[in-house]
Structures are given as C-alpha cells and as structure tokens.
Automatic annotation (TrEMBL):
<dbReference type="InterPro" id="IPR042101">
    <property type="entry name" value="SRP54_N_sf"/>
</dbReference>
<comment type="similarity">
    <text>Belongs to the GTP-binding SRP family. SRP54 subfamily.</text>
</comment>
<dbReference type="InterPro" id="IPR003593">
    <property type="entry name" value="AAA+_ATPase"/>
</dbReference>
<dbReference type="GO" id="GO:0008312">
    <property type="term" value="F:7S RNA binding"/>
</dbReference>
<feature type="binding site">
    <location>
        <begin position="108"/>
        <end position="115"/>
    </location>
    <ligand>
        <name>GTP</name>
    </ligand>
</feature>
<dbReference type="InterPro" id="IPR013822">
    <property type="entry name" value="Signal_recog_particl_SRP54_hlx"/>
</dbReference>
<protein>
    <recommendedName>
        <fullName>Signal recognition particle protein</fullName>
        <ecNumber>3.6.5.4</ecNumber>
    </recommendedName>
</protein>
<keyword id="KW-0687">Ribonucleoprotein</keyword>
<dbReference type="Pfam" id="PF02978">
    <property type="entry name" value="SRP_SPB"/>
</dbReference>
<feature type="binding site">
    <location>
        <begin position="247"/>
        <end position="250"/>
    </location>
    <ligand>
        <name>GTP</name>
    </ligand>
</feature>
<feature type="domain" description="SRP54-type proteins GTP-binding">
    <location>
        <begin position="268"/>
        <end position="281"/>
    </location>
</feature>
<dbReference type="InterPro" id="IPR004125">
    <property type="entry name" value="Signal_recog_particle_SRP54_M"/>
</dbReference>
<dbReference type="GO" id="GO:0006614">
    <property type="term" value="P:SRP-dependent cotranslational protein targeting to membrane"/>
</dbReference>
<keyword id="KW-0378">Hydrolase</keyword>
<keyword id="KW-0342">GTP-binding</keyword>
<dbReference type="Pfam" id="PF00448">
    <property type="entry name" value="SRP54"/>
</dbReference>
<dbReference type="GO" id="GO:0003924">
    <property type="term" value="F:GTPase activity"/>
</dbReference>
Amino acid sequence: MAFEGLSDKLSAAFKRLRAKGKLSESDIKEAMREVRLALLEADVSYKVAKDFVAQVSEKAIGAQVLESLTPAQQVIKIVNEELTALMGVSEVRLKSPKRPPAVVMMCGLQGAGKTTHSAKLANMLKKQGHRPLLVACDIYRPAAIEQLKVVGAKANTPVFEMGTASPVQIAKKALAHARDYGNDYVILDTAGRLHIDEQLMGELKDIKSTVEPSDILLVVDSMTGQDAVNVAKSFDDALGIDGVILTKLDGDTRGGAALSVRAVTGKPIKFVGMGEKLDDLEPFYPDRMASRILGMGDVLTLIEKAQTEVSQKDAEKMAEKLKKNSFDLNDLLDQMKQVKNMGSLQQVLSMLPGGNQISPDDIDERRLARIEAIIHSMTAKEREKPAIINPSRKRRIAAGSGTTVQDVNMLLRQFEQMQKLVKQFSHAPKHGKGRFGGM
Ligand code: GDP
C-alpha cells in the first residue's frame, strides 16, 4: 500500500518521542529531522518538506506543548493537523454549474489512467443517481475509443463517439447530445501523449474554450512521484486545471505526490484511484488521508464503503434473521462476499487503526477462499442445517472443495461458536437495527 515507508518511519520517530516523556527543544528538533527525512524519502519535494517541518516545529516548540502532560501526543496532533492542511484541509467536490450538463474534462499523459478513471467517475455518478455520458475525444490511439466503450459498458454508461472527427467537434456535438438526452454530466476522455507538447495543449485549450468545462481534472499517476507533481504544474500553467485525480495509490507508491500536489500547484486532489476496478475510486479527504498515513486508520471511509455495498434492505433482512436466530451458512457466505466487495482484505485492514502494522503475510486470504469453497460444496439443506452433516457428508464436502475433513470440522465448529454468539446478541436488549448489517 501507498505510504507504507512513510508511515513506518513516522511511527518510529513518534515512538521515540513518546518513550521520552518530558520533551526538550532538542528532542523535538531531532524528531523533526526524522520527519523531514521520512518525507524526502517518500518523494515529497524538498521545499514542501522543509516548509512543512518549519511549520510543525514552530507550533511544537511553543511552551504549551513542551509543558503539557503529554507532549509527544501534542506533537503528533500537530503533525496530523499540518499533514491535513498540506493536502488541502477539506474535501473538494465536483462543481455543479447553474445549467446542466456539467462538463468534466479529463486530461493527462498517456497511461496515467484517464480512460479508466473516466469510467470510474461515471460509475460513481451513476450510483449517486446521475445520468452521465462518456465522450471519446482521444482520436489518435486507435484502441482508445474501443477501450472507452468496454469500460463504459461495465459502468452501464453510454459512450458518445464520432470516430476520428476533430475532438473539438466531438465535444461540441456530445454536449448537444447530452442536452437532448437529459444527461446531467458529460465526461470527456481526451487524448494523452507521452510528454507534454504544444500541439496537445493547443487541442485541449480549443476544447476548453468551446465547451467551457465546469471541471478540468488532471489525471496523474502517483507512482511517478515528483514527476506527477511537475506534470500537474505544467498542465495548470498551460491550461488551468480545477483539480487532480491521483491514480494507482493502491500500488507501492511512496506517496510523495499526494502530499506535494496541493502545495506546489494550489489545486486540490479531488479523487484518488485505489485499484483497477470500477469501484476503486474514492473522494479525497485530506484529514482521512493524514490519519491513514499516521496509522490511525480511516474508519469513516470503511463505513461508507460498507454502506454502498450493503443495501438497507439487505441489512434489515440480516437483522431480522439474527433476531429469529435463523442465520445459516448461506448468510455467512453472503457476508463474506460483501466484505470482499469492499476490496481485498488487506485494503480493508489498512483502513483500521493500526491496520497498517499488519503485514500481508498475516492475512490469509486463501483461508477465506477455502471456507467459501467448503460452503459451496454443501447442499442447500446442509447450509441451512449444518447439524445434519455426518461423517460421510463431511468426506464428500472435503473432496468436493479440495480440502480435508479437518478443515470442514473447523469451519463447522467456528460456525457453531458464531451461532452461540448470535444467540446472545439476539437475546440482548435492542441497540438499533442492523447491528451486524454491514460486516
Ligand atoms: P490512459 O492512457 O490515461 O487512458 O490510461 P488507462 O486508463 O488506459 O490506464 C493505464 C493502466 O493503468 C491500465 O492498465 C489501468 O488498468 C491501470 N490503472 C488505472 N488506474 C489505476 C489505479 O488506480 N490502480 C491500478 N492498480 N491500476 C490502474
């Protein structure tokens, strides 16, 4: 995951501070040196790292911090606040023009993730009840239109294309089309290049002046670190951008781009790409990102993910089952699928406080796959009433799922324990419905 190195180094520095109890000015200076190094190693630009540390030091060396009962805690709090401020304080949403459709112009270098993120954005808007239209303005790469159609179909969003007509004309016609068909968002997937060039900028400027986008979003690849920030600066100087979509934050990027973009360009990161799938798009919340970097987790995003994956109806159905104590292995399978839909187990864990301390080796996704295989090998009756699973049935299930009888026994035992727990809960006083709903 992104920020792993930075998180580790910062927590090591803070651990040393905590161990000291009372802090002197030189303790803080030493810690700030470590913070600065950690930022530089995460590929944060030199000036940004220097300014950041100066800012934190100024606040931390104040008498209030040094004389407080928990000085280390105060320093961490200041770092948290300053990290949040560095990334822009609060979330910045897409603009909504007075008269729809809103035109979102996606631009960026080739391979940054423009086409993928055009579709992810369409998918997100659709889930919010909008009617987006995707527009193929990349006429140079023959496969680009086809690629947009494929991802558009996955996002259940229509794609407007006019083959290799001029991109300015395509954008103009697409806007008219959207007005006719009631699309409230028009997402333009423009052409990319390997490097910034005059011709590309000229074309983007022409599109901009013709359709007056409400948002020009620059898509940049976080894996390219400082380069991503330089690209953002160049695009902003030449074209003027409204915000950035930072992609591939799921990879082992060091995270510097996320921390520097705002400070260098003055433009907010509006969304981050967290994977190749359509649902792997998150609005960018500076405070939550700061918490993730400091290993404090991001429980709010996790809850939101759970809420979009689990409908109210499903949650109520589950609450009802729990109340009647009729939770069976089918339900367990459903719950496992829902958690999986939220992302890989590692992704989910990384959002929990301290979750970034768990190494991928500790997470046994294969065990979960084995549990699923075992349940899949059971008949409908067996799933509803695991008590009927006798030794010969166990052998059949083990053979069918490629596991052993011990594995089957273990699952049945764990399920039995779970049922006991559920029983306790279902007899406990009510604390609002859907307690187990999402997870
Ligand atoms: P474009 O040239 O800017 O349109 O880039 P594409 O949308 O074709 O993306 C380039 C590659 O990056 C594709 O293989 C995508 O699947 C991949 N990609 C895009 N966004 C992400 C992301 O957030 N995470 C990961 N892991 N891969 C991504």
